[in-house]
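Glycoside hydrolase family 28 protein
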Amino acid sequence: MRLPISCIALIIALLACNRQKENASNESVPESSNGWEYADSVRNEIQSAKIPTDTLRLIDFGSEDDSQRIQKAIDHVYELGGGTILIPSGIYYTGPIVLKSKINLYLEEGAELKFIAKPEIYPLAYNWFNGIPCMNYSSMIYAKDASDIQISGKGIIDGQGNDPVWKSMKFHERKDWELLKELENTNVKPINRKFGNGHSIRPDLITFLECSRINISGVSIKNAPFWVIHPILCKHVTIKNCLISSHGYDQIGIGLESSENILVDSTKFQFVDDGVKILSGRVKIPNNRASKNIVIQNSIFENVLYSAVIISSQTQAGANHIFLSDLKIDTSETALRIFANAGLKGKLHEIFLKNIQANHITGSFLLSNINNSSNLSNSSPLLYNIHLDKINAENCGRAFLLNGHSKNLIYNVNVRDSKFSTFKGSFVKNLQNMSFSNVRENEKNYSGTNTVGNIQIPKIHLEHNEDDILNSNNIKFNDLPKSVKNTLAANYPQIPVNNIDQMITQSNIIYNINLKLESSKELKLLVLADGKIMRSKSDITFDELPKAVISALQSYLKITPAPLMINEIKKIAFQDFAYFEIKGEYNRKLFAVGINNNGDIIEEKQKIITTYFSPNQIK
């Protein structure tokens, strides 16, 4: 007998109330402020850059090397008290640019700054890498201890991060990352943590360090070697009407680190790993502070690999009062990802979402986690007061995946007037006080309050019931929608269909289609009812790998005469991205590595083994 949803929720609540929370935090959780009124006050308090009205054209500074005359123009205008430097239409190949106070770098339509891919021309500069201060290659556009800076116009800023010089650094970056952590752990001063030439920590495209009143508007910014825009310890930053598009590794559109009073408005993000990343230092840093008072509104996130917005685990000083409104998210793993790190103890709270339209979320709309549980000696609440209002999520894996810890719960998640169209049920563990008002999931209504507490509930009331989701095997080809048939005909003509499975909710259909290739191989597709291919996966042989992939694998494994054993190779393709997943054994280690067509490592994992297995040996 299947109980009604309301009965299930009541049973869960009673179980949770009776459960002893011996290990959970006893410290009270502050009540939420009136969020959206507070957001209005943040918008009103953000200060704009104040730039003198004088304007000079770049052509007034000679015809020498572009790098020299751009920097010469900045220095000259700065000495005059500030103003606008107008860069006319044309392509300018430049090295590092140091911006100064009261400068507006204005790019006319057709103007393009291309940053030269020669690491040796970027001098050492103080920066933060993954939340740790160090001396590294200067960012391509860099400002420190400055105020009233503007980058504006209709031009393009291209970091040329896809150049092999920058991309190859990814292969060796882990070694320098471990060295940087060791230098920090042994209390070496940041000024003596020197990287740059001879090392492989990639620079950001644009960095503002301890600056205030920063405006970026109208420009297109693309192809960063590492992060695209990185304000650190900044106040009063406005990024508006921009296009941020960046392919590559570890691409963060905007990384807000220990910064406050931030407005991101009417900006489009494409092809980045994360659209906006909010963090506040990985280690204890003098003058560090929480990232707070952040408004992200009227913006679009397309083809984002991981998260439209992420509040990172690198939050030593915490993050609070974060407002996301009127956003469109199309194709991402999650809409909002929140990681609280018990080892850093930074508190994450007062997080508000409103008027979010999301589609093709492959994971969970909201994913929250408290990690580093071995450091949970502090019982103070870390993650609390999350509010969602007017969310419409379609073609979504899950609505929620909320994973607290028995020693530190997630507190107070409130959802109102929202609709989720999902393929899987939500997962909630170690959360106290989750309330719903007029929430619909796959045409089911839910309203009420559920105290989850310290018990694991893999299927709470948002899980599908048996009659909500129909898994059907061996669907006939003729039963497929015309849009799906057209996709198969256009992309895989005359390839026989081996098997079709489907998952159906009341508002979504997804097809798992296996195509029979030559030599008993299969091509597996995930196709939505509208014909969009979410993912393809096919088995291939070692000999079918591109030469660049084989070369990258050899470099990654540091090939010696030791036997290389390949267990499995799959080609995995998404709409705008493809890579090869290779699993095997080499030199007594299991490895799993993802490599794209260009030979770039995109994911890696190694594990020492003590037993031997016998897959196919590749000579």
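thats it. Helices lie at 5-18, 35-45, 66-79, 164-167, 173-185, 482-491, 547-557. The domain at 470-536 is CATH 3.10.450.360 (Nuclear Transport Factor 2; Chain: A,). bye
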